[in-house]
Specification:
Elements lengths: L1 E6 L7 H16 L4 E6 L32 H10 L2 E9 L2 E2 L1 H11 L3 E7 L2 E7 L5 E8 L8 H4 L2 H13 L1 E9 L2 H4 L5 H9 L7
Parallel strand pairs: 1-2, 1-3, 3-7, 7-8
Antiparallel strand pairs: 3-4, 5-6
Length: 205
């Protein structure tokens, strides 16, 4: 299993970073052949999408269309293609994923998807360019918002879930909201993150 973990926190060593690490440990605990790579988006130059639509309109038969922007997404593309399991981690800023995570999601949308899906009466929705099936888990953290109020303050999880389904053909098999970390502490969620990672090593269904 090739597992790629993508951390959208601007702080290395913070709660999101640590909980993603626990999820990786959980995945490796059940699979001796688990090859993992953790990407901290803060370390990479990922520019905002220019909406030029070159990737969207590409007719390539490859699993990824070339973006007109030259930056570190060129290097991350190969890691994404190789992954069959994914861990996404981000804090919520103003209820949404961080800006760096949003930029990453924007950049994979039409490079890894083509506008050939129809939902109800809407044509041109994203459809994965590749038939490769992937599994994913999502970890969202908040320093002050307790889990009981997640539905009011977490737009990150549904956005990530929908984007990776439409672009990466990834099925989200589990997610967690680690809230009120400033009072509860990150360690409070270690077990849950570990068990979430273990699910990635279970048979795909």
């Amino acid at each position: 299993m090739n597992l790629l973990a993508i951390v959208g926190s601007p702080r290395k060593g913070g709660a999101t970073y640590l909980l993603v690490g626990k999820a990786i440990e959980g995945a490796k605990s059940k699979s001796r052949e688990c090859i993992t790579k953790k990407i901290n988006l803060i370390d990479y130059d990922i520019k905002f999408c220019k909406n030029c639509l070159v990737c969207r309109d590409s007719k390539t038969k490859d699993p990824v269309a070339k973006c007109s922007i030259r930056d570190d997404m060129d290097y991350l593309t190969n890691d994404i293609l190789a992954a069959d399991s994914l861990v996404f981690g981000t804090p919520v800023h103003m209820g949404f994923a961080t800006a760096m995570m949003m930029a990453f999601l924007e950049r994979i949308c039409w490079t890894f998807a083509k506008p050939e899906r129809k939902i109800l009466t809407i044509s041109g929705c994203p459809l994965p360019r590749s038939d490769k099936k992937r599994k994913a888990v999502i970890i969202v953290t908040s320093g002050v918002v307790p889990p009981i109020y997640e539905k009011f303050c977490n737009e990150a999880t549904p956005l990530i879930k929908d984007t990776i389904k439409c672009s990466l053909n990834a099925k989200t098999i589990g997610d967690m909201f680690a809230g009120d970390i400033e009072h509860r502490g990150t360690e409070h969620y270690f077990g849950k993150a570990f068990n979430l990672g273990k699910k990635l090593s279970e048979p795909y269904c």
